[in-house]
Amino acid sequence: MSVSATAVKALDVGKSAFPDATPRKNELIFSVSCGNSRLSWATHHGASDNFNPELFWKTPHLDEKDDKDTHVSILSRNLPDKPHDCVFGEKAASSSNAEEEANRRGALVAVYVISTNRDQEERLRNLWSSIPCRFFVMRGGDFFHTNEGRYDSMGTDRLASLSGASYLHGHPALVFDGGTATTYSATNRRGQILGGGIGPGVQSKLKSMSRDTDALPEIGPDEVISRLNSIQKSGKPFPTFSRCTKDSMMSDVLQDIAMKGHHVIGQWLDKAYDQGNQSMPATSMFNSDHKVMCTGGDGEILMKLLQPNFGGVLESSVRSTATKPKMYDLEHSKNLQHYGIASVLSSYYNKRMGEGTNFHIHIGARVAKAAGGIVMLGTVTRLESVGGKREFRINWDESGSEQVSPENVAEMIKLFESEGQGKSKAPAKKKQAEDNGKKRAHKRAKPIDRFTKLVEESDPTSFIGNRVAKDFDGECYYGRLTEYDEQDSPAFWRVKYDDGDAEDYLQSDLIEALCYYEKTKRNDPG
């Protein structure tokens, strides 16, 4: 297979890269984030590992001094040994060697760029154009659609980080990004973007004081880190009432960020986890551990400030909300944006391969596993994240649970269909996805073919407000359709049962529930 050296793909500004940018077989995958102060690079695994990042490194911005060298030489200098050899082979960096290696591999290099810096974006484009590759600048719509709450002015870097957080831990997600600006961005339990905030970062605040006044000194980033380290070693936090000018400046700046951060976390816990009419869709992972992600150049500082009692960096008042019992878990990730890219790549690749990401059909499924000469029976209860990979949680009927890959779940469902049915009754009320610590009853209806024409020919939203019923082990459950959601594929109707449980109906489920209600409506208490 011969690969053209001119096969560089550039996108028009504002246009989504996908599905054209979906990874191809055997491609070497790189991602680069162009920040305000440096470049962050990564290589990625292939499809079998969900395109998760493999190797990370950072470099200074590309500048005019590089222009005296050839683009291929500059690219070579910015690659560590392993990525360098993958691109050029164990040879000198040249366009011909890169083309020879691409022909040997039978595939190009694919480069995915997140940029808030047009100059660096253009310089990167020029570097990668020196070898056979496909070059894509990612856009906001690659990570979140407008019907998921994305607004036009929301930065691609923030969207990528938010996508990375939800990829690793599910929704709701909250990301604090500390850099030139300190930002926070959040989603609710349905994966809808709540919004966020933007303010000056630690260094921006300190620089503004020294720049705009004659008396206040300049405090660099190294001095801030050094002071924080000495505070943690001594166990003596910044005093609120400081008698040192530099400590007064740093203490005030850090208090601003810390107090705001704790307030934001409290608001997120209240708003994002409120069930209301936004129950978790079965296709998404649920952030049951209340993970809060910190990233960016000042990510480590944010990690300290957002801990209960401010991580010992600042003095705490007994009245401070930061002294309350810990209701969330902080995690520092320097490379969230690259995980956000992995999320997009794996999603589009699976769709192209016909697998899609519609795992919800397995939630509530009965499964079987041969173990020690017996057949264990269980129920798939939810989708979880394990190191960026998606696995199902299975609760076994007798006792215990385990995480299983999507491939193994499919085999277990087949085994149940051939070996498990009739050997043991399912629990009286098997529960579907765990939602905010409570399991929702998964009601199953008997197969019914009626009402099909009505549902297929009517406006899907016209059924909102209709009463429905389902039979489960001889007991009738009544509920009401509350919404229609066509953002996922396939679309579904949300039903809220009178006992407080909620469930998603596909079209076949709706037909059965409407028909069964017609038979039992005389007993409807609602």
Automatic annotation (TrEMBL):
Organism annotation: Thalassiosira oceanica
Regions crossing the membrane: none
SUPFAM superfamilies referenced in this protein's UniProt entry, alphabetically: Actin-like ATPase domain
Protein name per its UniProtKB record: Type III pantothenate kinase
Gene3D superfamilies from the UniProt entry: 3.30.420.40
GO BP annotations, alphabetical order: coenzyme A biosynthetic process
Keyword entries, A-Z: ATP-binding, Coenzyme A biosynthesis, Cytoplasm, Kinase, Nucleotide-binding, Potassium, Transferase
A Pfam family this chain is assigned to: PTM_DIR17_Tudor
Sequence similarity: Belongs to the type III pantothenate kinase family.
Primary location class: cytoplasm
Compartments reported by the entry: Cytoplasm
PANTHER family listed in its UniProt record: TYPE III PANTOTHENATE KINASE
Complex and partners: Homodimer.
Superkingdom in the source lineage: Eukaryota
InterPro entries: ATPase_NBD, Tudor_AtPTM-like, Type_III_PanK
Residue ranges, annotated region (Disordered): 419-444
GO cellular component entries: cytoplasm
